[in-house]
Give the backbone structure.
Amino acid sequence: MKQIWDFHGGIHPKENKEQSNQDGISDAGIPPRLILPLQQHIGHRAEPVVSVGDKVLKGQLIAKAVGAISVAVHAPTSGSVTAIEDHPVPHASGMTDLCVLIETDGKDSWCERTPCEDYSTLSKDELLSRIRNAGIAGMGGAGFPTAIKLHPPRQDKVNTLILNGAECEPYITSDDRLMRERASEVILGLEIMAYILQPGECLIGVEDNKPEAIAALREAAKETQVEVVTIPTKYPSGGEKQLIKILTGSEVPHGRIPADIGVMCQNVATAAAVYRAIRFGEPLISRVTTMTGDCIANKGNQNVLIGTPIDWLLEQNGYLNQKGSRLVMGGPMMGFTLHDTKLPVVKTTNCLLAATNKELTPPQPAQACIRCGMCSEVCPAELLPQQLYWFAKGQEFEKAEHHNLFDCIECGACSYVCPSTIPLVQYYRYAKGEIKQIKADQEKSNQARERFEFRQERIEREKAEKEAKRKARAEAAAKAQAAKKEAAAAKGTAASSPTEGSTANDKAAAIQAALQRVEAKKQAQTAPEVTLESLQKKLLSAEDKLSKMENAWKDAVENNPERAEKLATAVESSKTNVAKLNAQISEMNKGTGQAGGSEPQAPVGPSIEELQKNVDKAKSKLQLMLDTLEDAKLNHPDRVEKLERAITKNHTRVSHAETALSEATNAKKTTESTESNG
Amino acid sequence: MGLMTITSPHAHGPRKTANLMRVVVIATLPGLFALTWFFGWGNLINVIWCSTVALLAESAILLIRKRPVSFYLGDYSALVTGVLLGLALPPLAPWWVSVVAVGFAIIVAKHLYGGMGYNPFNPAMVGFALVLISFPVAMTTSWAAPTHLLDNPMSFLDTLSTIFGFSTQSIDAFTMATPLDVYKHEISHSVAEDVVKNPVFGQFIAHGWEWVNIAFLAGGLFLMKKGVFTWHTPISMLFALALMSLIFGWDADQTTPPLLHLFAGATMLGAFFIATDPVTSAVSPQGKLIYGAGIGILTYVIRTYGSYPDAIAFSVLLMNFAAPLIDVYTQPRTYGYAKAKRGTKEAE
Amino acid sequence: MSIILSAILTLLALAIVFGAILGFAAIKFKVEGNPIVDEIDNLLPQTQCGQCGFPGCRPYAEAIANGEEINKCPPGGEVTIQSLADLLDVEATPLDAEHGEEKGKQVAVIREDECIGCTKCIQACPVDAILGAAKQMHTVIADECTGCDLCVEPCPVDCIDMVLVPEDIKSWTWENPGNQPQIAGNIIATDKAPEVAV
């Protein structure tokens, strides 16, 4: 018997599971229309790869994963795409998001699949990419892309792989039924994950109120290393952090992810989906959903196609909408209410709870907090919810953060026990949102300030440069004047051949002026050290920024995957920036090192010249095109359109080249070089 | 009918503030019964009178503050304040003492600070301390003598007319100093053996008082079992009081002995019904331990070295002052942290 | 007489001792620069819009530190005024309408087919958030735009619109439950709050 631990707090709400766990999983069938949100997971929204009117087959990719943290979306059945538009999606806000709408044809014909008899013949990377391409995201509720999770950052070694079969929320029985009926799929999926991660032990944690599921899993896991652990029923034992505490005794440190302590947690339904994706090449196009609550006549679990409209599904199961006023997606503790029934089932929809007012009483008016402390007694994160409530209500967000607001998992245990019926969780969500908003605003205003200051600096510098140039020119002019005078004097004395003399004088003046210019140029470029210094400074700050960004990225990967995406690209660009600066510095070092003052232009010349060449090239090409266009207009009217397109393209190319050039010249403070060229 | 859009959780536990307060009132019944049994009708009349005044005062102030009256009366918090004051005041305290105490508790100590949940000090104890300081004579000479020691105990009507001032007869015949008071004064010029011969100490510890305290203890344990409060505050308070009197009061010939400290006066009432008021106490378990211990220590110190025979009210009020500070330094360790954050500084 | 003398001497000694302590503290804990300006600048929204009458946020911050009114920043609105009032411990005054009204978060958008490529907006943008070159179409980098609307005025063809940034599913956050009438949690929050029927 494996030792198990206890976590602080927790509650024992009425389970209400018997209404829906009696019968086996049935098939919900194919609805006439499917609504597929392109964002059913945490991270970047998938990008549609089909267009309106396209015929799609069951399992066909309709939106591909974009960016590091994203998963694909597939057609759950065959049919045709009728629209790609904003449609209300299941979200606490009740807002719309981009969806692909499919009209089903009822044939349910599969596209080509790539099954794999033996997963061990595939490499880990291949397995991960298949999981990613199968569109699998955590099916327990959060919807974090599974492939990313299975590829922990910093090469953390996963020693304990945990399957979460706790299903601690009341009413929900989808995992329970899945474990009972498809135990072997769960175990095989776990083995595939174990093959990828090579953990020391594989555990499945199941609450002791599901004896049938435990028996089925034990039976299926007989020949394997997998251990099925029975844990006491207590909400929220199915919370990732709580389950890890129960099964390993260790806690996930604040701001870190389980992989950092060598643990990984996956949902049982995810494991089954991974198995089907690898073994049969089936993407995630359906899931088991519990339909329960007294407003539904036929309570139970069904295998539902992703995208199935909820109103259709409810209709199929006898929805008594006059009885209820609340439709919850998820369980009664952490689920969110839907604003409408015309929403689709998504990858994270483990339960639809259509409850009567008798089952889930409407919220009572909140009374004053009497600080009875029952909330802190049940808080699984060991917070002081009553204090957090004061701070959130009084908008003292700094204090709330100091009291570890962001360690709140929003399990709702505090609100459940609150004798004053205060909507505590909503206060925490509000405070979290506000704090994030404040931080984002602060970041943005800092950025704006930086850009503003940089611009001011640049304007100052440009002014100074112009001033210096003007001075140099004035000086040169004065000298030329003097030379002229001298020459005139010489002419006066010599007075031999006026034409020759004047040309000579002119020449002399021109030479003088040219010399002057060269001098000025040299002066402008004498300070390679200065530029070097500034470059180094830039490099330092760039490196600093990079490390900051990397930290932020790491942080975001754990807490805010949506931002992680953005940050990842930012980090990349930051890296290239640093590399560029490094290269520049080394080049500059080389330049100053070997050539010294003899060839001050060397370090900057080539690239600018190159750019200039690019511009010239592009321009001449454009000219050529314009000529051809004229020609074509006269002789080949069919070619005109194409040419015009090409010309606009070329226009942008020219502008690109020009901006690149001007940027380069700006950056290297060699405005003179362009001047001398022109 | 539109769908309700509300935040999770959608399920709610059975517990309500009103239920909690009702349970607290019920848990005082054994104590009230014991008080009535041993000291006559005074406390019962006081409890009813104080509750009535409390509810009236609450309604009046709610009306003035333009709040829904029935909604706030429904939380029973005013009733609890009234009942606790009725239990704490001397049985034969004149009616106007009760009115001042309750009125001040409800109107000033509670509602002028923002109403229930916002008051920094225990309202009942603020009211009690006010009358204790303002009307020392009424508050020290109104303690009813145990009815068993009287040849002809006061009838219900007599008690009623005494409290409401209709009775012309002197109440001196029916009153007696409390055991804590007696011991403290007698022991300075006597020895323990002689002191306890005073009938006020009765057979065991203090006539009647020991049963009253046991009754309150029973009520408190019932509340603890019901989960109305945790064990931390009362146990730590009693433990600190016992420890203090063991260390400094081991010699019964010099000072009041431990058992008398624990089972006479308002000790158990204070430990289980007053110190546990959640609004004004510390919040974390560790904080509650410190808070309770502080009350215990202060109670001993004031009882022994102060001029008042009992000290629950002052100790509780003094620790109310300290509660926010205790909270700052006793944040519990949150899941995922190696150490708790203490004070206002950031810590990992 | 001696009493008066001793009193004077004592006070003198105290004055010297405390003076020395204060002087030491002034050197030891010397504050570099003028942090109050930085702190004020931090609270300003950094739109650099100049609606306050100063050429940018920092100049306004400096002016506030020197006693300028705190209610001249329309982009920051009431929130900024409140936080400035908290920082400086002064009364929060309503926004001075002379300098503009508080609008929601805005971003500039160039109607690109109408743009003639004059670069005037590029020169006007205080944060370099407009991209483009002469005779080429310009565009706004929405992420960098502070919504200051300084580019609208110089545009000769009026092709720049200021549009409100709409709330979408990603930027949505939970509402303060205290503001929701169906949750009567705010009945006794303050005595000023309007009455809520229960």
User: Anything to note?
Assistant: Residues 42-64 of chain B form the longest helix (23 residues).
